[in-house]
Amino acid sequence: MISIDNLTISFSGKKAVDGISLQIEPGEIMGLVGESGSGKSVTALTLMGLLASEGVMETGTIDFNGIRLLEAGVKPDQKLLRSFRGDQMSMIFQEPMTSLNPTMKVGPQIDEQLILHAKGEFKSSEERKKRVLETLEGVGLRDVEKVYDSYPHQLSGGMRQRAMIAMAVILHPALIIADEPTTALDVTIQNQIVKLLKEIRDRENNSMIFITHDLNLARRICTKLAVMKDGKIVEIGPTEDIFTKPQTDYAKKLIAAVPGRRNALSAKAQSKAESDKLSGDGSEAGELSNAGNEAGENDKKSPILTVKDLNVFYKERSNNIFGKTEHKCVVKNANFEIYPGETLGLVGESGCGKTSLCKAILGINNDITGSVKVATVRPQMVFQDPYSSLNPSKTVGWLLEEPLRAEDLLEKSIKTTKASRREMAIDMLRRVGLDEYYYDRMPHQLSGGQRQRVSIGQALITRPSLILADEPVSALDVTIQDQVLDLLEGLQEEYGLAYLFISHDINVIYRVSDRIMVMKKGEILEIGDRDQLFNDPKHPYTKELLAES
Amino acid sequence: MKYFVKKIVTLIITLLLVSILAFLAFQIIPGDVVHSILGTEATPEREEALREELGLDKPPIERYLNWGKNVLRGDFGVSYRYSKNMNEMMPVKELIGDKLPVTLWLALLSVGITVLIAIPLGVLWAGTKNKFLDGVLNVLTQTSMAIPAFFLGILVTYLFGIALKMFSPGAYVSYKTNFGGFIHYLIFPAIAIAIPKIGMTARFLRNSTLTELTSDYVRTARSKGASEKRILFKHVLRNAMLPVITFLGMIIAEVVAGSIVVEQVFALPGIGRLLISAISTRDFPVVEILILYITFVVIIVYFVVDVLYRVLDPRIREK
Fold it and tell me: Which of A175, A499, A546, B129 could lock A343 by a disulfide, CB 3.0 to 4.6 Å apart?
């Protein structure tokens, strides 16, 4: 049994973890959930004895099967900790690419566990290799000899994470800590990894700590949940209890923010039902001024985006200076329309051509065949990472005004002067829910959610009727996600915007979409109304995708 | 295979371009070879005769093509300036062939000293938690980089030559007569060249090691219970060396091209000194070949760096 008692950790005087206590029994999967910065990872790293040197353990003790690992005010016994790490407790990290040594083959990296902790048990390196290969098989890898001799970059993301897991379980540790182990992976892979972790737990009865910000995921794997906020555990209990009857306000808020079919009847669905009722009878002739989002009337409107027989290519430069550049087809024969006021959700694994499709629609990539017709001013894009997609050396105001300076993008009726641009930027700030004084702020002074609001404002300021949103909430915490989705929905109603909404998160897609398009390896497998697609998926890949959420 | 063909084609094109540029430069810069050889007292007839003898009366394009043809056949021409004896011109090949070993050995020794000292020093520096040692190394490397080369040469001469009497300054021993003595003498100029390079390389390696130590895979290694020493040598060193390799390549290219100042201070008959005198006397055949040599060496060194990089970094290997 692992017991954390009254643990407080501070970084330069600021408390990152504030007096938490946790007990984890064998066979238990304890989920640590909460927003980023709530102290989840710091707790886990401290338990491993890997707290950064700037961190100070102010109070508390950590006991591991009756052995005191750490105690506030007592210098940690590094030798003892090292003998526990890897052997008794091991850790699986978020990003398997960077968490493995890029210049060392995968096999030897796993073998290192045996060399460090169990050298005596094996007579030769061949015997150790045999054990490593067995473990690789045990985590569901095939062709294990080849995996053993591969470098991390030669494996896919899922294979790398399996290798990480093999490394973590090879010595059958009593505790496995998984820190966002599936966040960097595609949905289909995510599910396999979660299954694998459960299998391992069933087989070996280890304790697990599962850290995630994804509550849907936590619900699927964890037996108990500890909800963390500002370094404190605000609520702890069996997973289903927390989901069905959360006690504290914060847990309630967190659960309510979870996008998902279970708490589906969202504000949007309701308002849609109402507006359907309103415009359903009578005014068939011309409701163009009311740019609502009646999905049912799509056939009567002309599409805002028509994509016909579209193939998108990209050039792969060959290594030889005289060699031909290779043409690779990344989107194959795409046909679809988007109507004013609707949201078309696009799901698919990474590398399936989602972003290439966007680039073709925006006209950034002209290497296409077929046609893309856009019935609006140039569509704008909202990107995934609000940290890197805003120029860090400019003010928010400047960033918002930037699209207005490119006059050829605007409708001809809009003429801008310096003063009018400023006015429009400030107006846009309000519309995306930010105060006027953010006009003079720099991006680094904003939070992730605020930055994404600025990105959205940037996309909207030229008044396009079509927005391409490429994973716009994937980098944000659940509660912030919720706010940003609300904003997008509100703006849609206000301006009658159409969205092409890309996400790998089925639950987010379900929440925002009117229709859904499924893509795999450059091909569109299925397009359909949301409910129809969810209730009766036609393509086996869609079924597989939906089975996971 | 493709890779090598590409590299060789690049090498040839570069050499061609550089040779044309060097040739053109000699057309543009003021000064007349014939004047500079014969002096101001010469008669016009004598000048005319020499001009013809050197082929300088022909148009530039023809001269360049002739020169190129000869170089391809391995005939590098004769020096305008140096002569073997009263009647015989000095072939460029012999002239450079004489001095090249001096520079190459000097380069080899200085790079060897740099690598042997800088790499352990950089790793030790990155690994140390001792604030005092960190400060000392910081000041030392900073200083070594700041001292001008000629002054460093004088310091080394004074310290090892005059104070410690480990060699006699100015008493260069030719590799032809006494190879051991030659190497012994070269060690000291090599040290003078190496000192600032050690400072730079150690600093660079320390920084890249510290960066690597914060990366995710190091955290993974720690989570496995590996000791700090094991992490440093088994995991970090190879990754931290990657940027250092490129940096070392630049250093090697620099020393192989001849260390003019240090050769001067230690009176070494290397190609650095030859290049300076050839330029000032408009000794075109010598300069042109030296420029080609330096270009060639630099490209080859970068090629070796590239190959080494591929060996160390599996990610580059496959691209």
Answer: A499
